[in-house]
Amino acid sequence: MATPLSDSSLSPLKTIAVVGLGTMGTGIAEVLAKAGREVVGIDISEAQVVRCVAALESSTARAVERGRLTEEERAQALARVRTSTDLGAAADADLVIEVAPESYEIKQQIFRELDGIVRPETVLATGTNALSVTRLAADSARPERVLGLHFFNPAPAMRLVEVVSSVLTAPQAVAAVTDLAIELGKEPVAVGDRPGFVADGLLFGYLNQAAAMYEAKYASREDIDAAMRLGCGLPMGPLALLDLIGIDTARTVLDAMYAASRDRLHAPAPILKQLSEAGLTGRKAGRGFYTYEAPGSAVVVPDALTPRDGEHLTPGRPVRSVGVAGSGTMASGIAEVFAKAGYEVVLAARSAEKAQAAKARIGKSLSRSVDKGRLTAEAAAGTLDRITPAGSYDAFADVDLAVEAVAEDLEVKRQLFAALDKVCKPGAVLATTTSSLPVVACARATSRPRDVIGMHFFNPAPAMKLVEVVRTVLTADDVHSTVREVCVKIRKHAVDCGDRAGFIVNALLFPYLNNAIKMVQDHYASLDDIDAAMKLGGGYPMGPFELLDVVGLDVSLAIEKVLHREFRDPGLAPAPLLEHLVAAGCLGRKTGRGFREYARR
């Protein structure tokens, strides 16, 4: 019979057993030992125990070299760790953290054995990120003592810890491990029991879609990864991250998520199964989406899929002058980028006043760059002199490249392209900066669809390095080459993709944002906990709700509707909560209220 809980029955968590001494278990043991806990490291493999001890000695020695530990502190931390191959060594533990392989059979066997070993008041925690904590708890003799304690890799560096409660978990057990996490210098986030919890629940859906995008040959692995690093500020691209996590591990997590959600976005992309079964599981195997110098190495080496220099052999068209259509933030930012690179720029708007105002905005931007020491006053003046404002698109008669950055409305863009078709000289390249509309629809509004291409800049254009180069089925090879060459001259990183909704970045970003909204809508986790989880556990520069409020909820909803309409996947349907907020006029920072409230300026 399970021992009833009382507030006084929980011992302080001073002695902690870690079962499973792989990378994660070793990292957790290090964190605990440094924080003054007595640690019992247990693994059935003697070789793994030896590797764990060696890794602890090595990592603490590095900490001393870097001034993060004294030699005395290192010796004390190592002395607090004892190891064993016998689960019976956990007998005196106040807390047991299990980080064995992601298998119900293995974990249930460990929990059944622990029932006969540990004291009645000992808390049992599983480090799973994919399996049901409730199912593991239900098989235990004391389910009220079982919970999830999900650290992130590498445990010494990553601050997030997800504390996972099942319907059976006692509040005192949750409180005890939450307090422990804080004492370890971690930031605990309370979540319920569902596959992936918060961070992995959002992360793995995104990784799965990236794998499917690559499998469909929509974009190269290098371009997918560069797009998400440069377009979203992520520390790693999704395919490189899958290689780091382990493709077999990702497949296991996604299988568990799909079994629970039946959301097609969680159904593992077939390529994950193919790579796993071929033993190409990522860095640990020396090959996954990329090829590595050796198993376990982080150094990527060229292989048959690596792009070769000079791959784009078709010469581009000469570009000396550029026309930018529009007067908003994006148009003025793009005009600034081209002028800084030495191009003569015509900045045209619907009126001379709007064009002059856009040029004035560029002048202020350049002045800020001068104030910050990024630009000399002479260079700023020269840049501004290269921009000619115009109140009519007739001023584009002699430009070699026309880039439109007007409202994200297909009919508005079609009318503009029809006008550019009449004004621009033969051979001029016509580009749209659309982020979600079909480029081919703009092309078909002209008599020269071969000359039309997408150049999707990111906001703010002077700062963001990425440009998505979007070819339609009608775009000429030399037009594509022209834009690639121009991107080099304006110091932007170009990635190639086809003409479908969302291109690379938005097609991967917005389903992730939508799934975050669904978590809040379902009362699974709070805005603050989800934002913290993705920043601390995923390395994201902003949490999803911070980002949604910056982008604008109306803009986000429009993009999600486009994605849902094109791909017809029920999982892409915009979350009703987002639709309700937009209908209420809560559009984010620009209106003072979105998912959060903001002080009016």
UniProtKB/TrEMBL annotation:
<dbReference type="GO" id="GO:0070403">
    <property type="term" value="F:NAD+ binding"/>
</dbReference>
<dbReference type="InterPro" id="IPR006176">
    <property type="entry name" value="3-OHacyl-CoA_DH_NAD-bd"/>
</dbReference>
<feature type="domain" description="3-hydroxyacyl-CoA dehydrogenase C-terminal">
    <location>
        <begin position="502"/>
        <end position="598"/>
    </location>
</feature>
<dbReference type="InterPro" id="IPR013328">
    <property type="entry name" value="6PGD_dom2"/>
</dbReference>
<comment type="similarity">
    <text>Belongs to the 3-hydroxyacyl-CoA dehydrogenase family.</text>
</comment>
<dbReference type="InterPro" id="IPR036291">
    <property type="entry name" value="NAD(P)-bd_dom_sf"/>
</dbReference>
<feature type="domain" description="3-hydroxyacyl-CoA dehydrogenase C-terminal">
    <location>
        <begin position="196"/>
        <end position="292"/>
    </location>
</feature>
<comment type="pathway">
    <text>Lipid metabolism; butanoate metabolism.</text>
</comment>
<protein>
    <submittedName>
        <fullName>NAD(P)-binding domain-containing protein</fullName>
    </submittedName>
</protein>
<feature type="domain" description="3-hydroxyacyl-CoA dehydrogenase NAD binding">
    <location>
        <begin position="322"/>
        <end position="499"/>
    </location>
</feature>
<keyword id="KW-0560">Oxidoreductase</keyword>
<dbReference type="GO" id="GO:0006635">
    <property type="term" value="P:fatty acid beta-oxidation"/>
</dbReference>
<feature type="domain" description="3-hydroxyacyl-CoA dehydrogenase NAD binding">
    <location>
        <begin position="15"/>
        <end position="193"/>
    </location>
</feature>
<dbReference type="Pfam" id="PF02737">
    <property type="entry name" value="3HCDH_N"/>
</dbReference>
<dbReference type="GO" id="GO:0008691">
    <property type="term" value="F:3-hydroxybutyryl-CoA dehydrogenase activity"/>
</dbReference>
<dbReference type="InterPro" id="IPR006108">
    <property type="entry name" value="3HC_DH_C"/>
</dbReference>
<dbReference type="InterPro" id="IPR008927">
    <property type="entry name" value="6-PGluconate_DH-like_C_sf"/>
</dbReference>
<dbReference type="Pfam" id="PF00725">
    <property type="entry name" value="3HCDH"/>
</dbReference>
